[in-house]
Design goal:
One of its GO terms (molecular function) is UFM1 ligase activity. The chain is mostly helical. The protein folds into 5 domains: about 5-115, no CATH class; about 120-245, no CATH class; about 260-370, no CATH class; about 385-445 and about 455-615, no CATH class; about 620-725, no CATH class. Helix content is about 65%, strand content about 5%. The protein contains 31 helices and 17 strands. A 3-stranded antiparallel β-sheet has the order 3-5-4, sandwiched between helices. A 3-stranded antiparallel β-sheet has the order 6-8-7. β13 and β14 form a beta hairpin. α19 (about 375-410) packs parallel to α22 (about 455-520), α22 packs antiparallel against α23 and α23 (about 525-550) runs antiparallel to α25 (about 575-585). The relative contact order is 0.03.
């Protein structure tokens, strides 16, 4: 049973009457809803409640409302908007739309939207209008302009292409046939007009065609023989290029002209001409002999003639400077680092004497290395002298350390021989170590070459690397020569020094012996004082000479006691250190026997290797005579009265009694008494000595008395005349000692 709208109206009127009725026959709104629900459940009526439940309508009326709403909105409405506008549940809208689609083809459902066919037709008409104006449109741009979901556009509008829309689509782009025909003609014109290689992608972009449409048009033109060229490269990549037929002729002419005028062609130019395999192309273009002489650089290809010109410049530079910076002689087209390195490799191969610097644009020859080595001669000489000097000091210290060991070997012949051999081997090993350690640092040689030469800084490190070994070999040879010379000179100097020291000490020691013997002729008290004076003077001089020789220290007599003790402690030879310490201990006392014992230790081969012996009777006589002669010489040269008196007294004892006395001015009174006893002088002579002594004492007390000085001069003349046996002739002093207090120290040779 179908419920009509009139039935519903009657039912509504009845319900209204019931509601307006008074008393017990009146129904509430809730009762009305329950009644309608019961009727719907019993299928007595077929209606649809609104979402709020306040109204209801039939399904047929709902279909009408949906169609009206879609048409009222221009032919397109979403199902959700229908549910909201009609105040009906979404489920009822979906069911009703499904009924509409079954009943009529004037509507379609797409993307949850109800769309009228008239709406789609209007879009197709508008699309045709736009295409007629532009010839090409973008689908994505249309979607934005029309505010359409892509599903609707692609599902409803584009499906009409070929029927309602006079066009074709490729990808995202829609073309009209007239547009494609015009682009075909344009492409044909472009291909015929091109004279150089052109990327196909550039042509496609210029024509505003998709790749598939573009290649379709190109293939059509090619099939009709309307393309005066070929395509190089794959179509699926951007490497596809159009190569016009006339391009080959132009390129060939250009390449030949380049080699004729410039004798070269840049590889970048070949790439621009779409020549990928240059060697293959040039082999076809150039004569066989010319192609065979080409030189391929990374940046260009040059002819043999051009390279000969470059090589001539390089050789000329090499003859002048022994080195050449190739980057200064390369053409601009082949001036990159890779080009220069290629040129260097060619030069080095062509001349065996030429060498290259790693990573630098230079070539050089062996003459440059020889010149650089010669320039280092000053540095090598200075360094060799320093190394030899260091070796000399070390050698001297080593010899001092070895002296006790040599002394130990003297106990047996077999051991001595073996010890000497070992020492020689050890010394040779030390010299070898010195020579091997003589090296130059690279920085040192670079700095020196930079100072004394004008070589490029970039080339210095390479040169140093080449000549460093030779420089060190020259250094070691020069050190060895200096060391050998030093050894020879050192041995000679050492021997000479030892001989001089030995002679000096022997002379002093002989004097000490005769002076010591003379002290026994005096009284005990005076003898003790004379021996103490002898130790304090001549014996101390001997000790200082020994210390100077062993320690290598000069002016040892001027050293303080503290410094002298430190110097003795620094002697590395233990035996020598002990012997020298004992010698200075002896001269610090008053015992000459201790001095003689210490001198015996010092004289051993382990210390100074002195050959000291007590002088015999004959030698003593000769020593006293020599002493007397020396006193006569000093007396002749003496101008000081006090010194002249002392010398005269010593001369009297030496000549008349053969006694050699070593004394100072404070012993004058004792010596006068001794002379009076043993010299057998006349009373007048003794009076001269005594009176002169008194005048000397008076002169010391009153140094400004001129009369005393005059009398002393006269007395000295008389004394000289008496002792020398001739009238005194005044002579200028020749360096005689004039200190009456300290007396005269006389050294005699044996």
């Amino acid at each position: 049973m179908t419920t009509t709208w009139a039935d519903i109206q009657r039912l509504a009127a009845d319900l209204q009457r019931v509601q307006l009725a008074e008393g017990t026959k009146k129904l509430s709104e809730r009762n009305c809803v329950e009644v309608v629900s019961m009727l719907m459940a019993s299928k007595a009526i077929d209606v649809v409640f609104t979402s709020d439940g306040h109204a209801y309508l039939t399904k047929k009326h709902l279909l009408t409302e949906i169609k009206n709403e879609c048409i009222g909105r221009g032919g397109r409405v979403s199902l959700s908007d229908l549910a909201h506008t009609l105040n009906v549940d979404y489920e009822h809208i979906e069911n009703s739309v499904a009924v509409i689609l079954k009943q009529s083809s004037s509507f379609v459902l797409c993307n949850a939207e109800l769309i009228a066919r008239d709406y789609v037709d209007s879009l197709c008409m508008e699309l045709n209008e736009r295409l007629s104006e532009t010839g090409v449109l973008s689908a994505s741009q249309l979607i934005k302009t029309w505010d359409l979901p892509s599903e609707i556009f692609y599902g409803l509008v584009l499906t009409e292409i070929g029927s309602k829309v006079e066009a074709m689509i490729d990808g995202d782009t829609i073309y009209t046939s007239p547009y494609l025909s015009a682009q075909r003609n344009l492409l044909r014109a472009i291909l015929n007009a091109l004279t150089k290689v052109t990327p196909m992608a550039k042509l496609s972009a210029h024509l505003n065609l998709s790749p598939s449409i573009f290649w379709s048009i190109y293939d059509d033109l090619a099939a009709n023989s309307e393309v005066p060229g070929t395509v190089a490269g794959g179509r699926s990549s951007n490497l596809a290029h159009y190569v016009p037929n006339r391009h080959g002729m132009l390129v060939r002419s250009f390449v030949l002209k380049c080699f004729e005028q410039e004798k070269m062609i840049a590889t970048s130019t070949l790439r621009k001409l779409s020549i990928v395999h240059a060697n293959v192309y040039l082999k076809d273009v150039l004569p066989k002999s010319e192609f065979a002489s080409l030189i391929f650089f990374p940046s260009a290809i040059i002819s043999k003639e051009l390279w000969d010109e470059i090589e001539a410049l390089i050789k000329n530079e090499m003859e002048k400077m022994c080195y050449c910076d190739l980057s200064l002689h390369m053409p601009a087209a082949i001036s990159s680092d890779q080009d220069v390195q290629k040129a260097i490799s060619i030069c080095v191969k062509s001349s065996k004497e030429w060498m290259s610097a790693s990573g630098q644009p230079f070539v050089y020859n062996s003459q440059l290395l020889a010149s650089a080595l010669k320039a280092l001669n000053g540095l090598i000489s200075d360094r060799a002298e320093k190394e030899a000097e260091v070796w000399s000091r070390q050698h001297k210290n080593a010899k001092r350390e070895e002296k006790p060991q040599e002394e130990d070997w003297t106990t047996g012949k077999g051991k001595k021989g073996r010890g000497g051999k070992g020492k020689g081997n050890k010394q040779t090993h030390k010299e070898e170590q010195l020579f091997a350690s003589a090296r130059f640092s690279a920085e040192e040689l670079v700095s020196e070459l930079e100072r004394v030469t004008n070589l490029p800084k970039e080339l210095l490190e390479e040169i140093v690397e080449q000549i460093c070994a030779n420089a060190e070999a020259v250094l070691r040879a020069r050190i060895e020569t200096l060391v050998r010379t030093v050894q020879t000179v050192s041995a000679q100097d050492q021997k000479r020094s030892h001989v001089q020291m030995q002679e000096k000490i022997r002379a002093l020691y002989n004097n000490i012996c005769i002076f010591e013997q003379a002290t026994s002729s005096f009284d005990d008290v005076v003898a003790t004082d004379l021996r103490a004076y002898l130790i304090r003077t001549l014996c101390t001089d001997v000790a200082n000479i020994v210390l100077s020789y062993i320690s290598g220290t000069e002016n040892t007599n001027a050293l303080t006691i503290k410094i002298r003790d430190e110097t003795i402690s620094s002697i590395e030879n233990a035996g020598g250190r002990e012997a020298v310490a004992a010698l200075f201990a002896a001269v610090s006392g008053a015992d000459l026997d201790a001095f003689h014992s210490a001198m015996s230790s010092v004289s051993s081969p382990a210390v100074c290797s002195l050959n000291l012996k007590m002088p015999d009777k004959k030698q003593r006589t000769e020593l006293v005579q020599a002493y007397a002669s020396e006193l006569e010489r000093q007396l002749r040269a003496c101008d000081d009265a006090a010194s002249g008196l002392l010398i005269s007294l010593l001369l009297i004892l030496a000549k008349r009694n053969a006694i050699a006395v070593h004394a100072s001015g404070k012993f004058v009174s004792h010596i006068i008494a001794k002379v009076e006893k043993v010299a057998n002088l006349s009373a007048e002579q003794m009076e001269l000595l005594v009176s002169m002594q008194k005048l000397v004492i008076a002169s010391m007390k009153n140094k400004t008395d001129v009369d005393l000085k005059t009398k002393l001069v006269e007395k000295l003349k008389s004394l000289k005349s008496f002792l020398l046996g001739v009238d005194y002739v005044e002579e200028s002093s020749k360096g005689g000692k004039q200190d009456g207090e300290d007396g005269v120290i006389i050294e005699l040779t044996s």
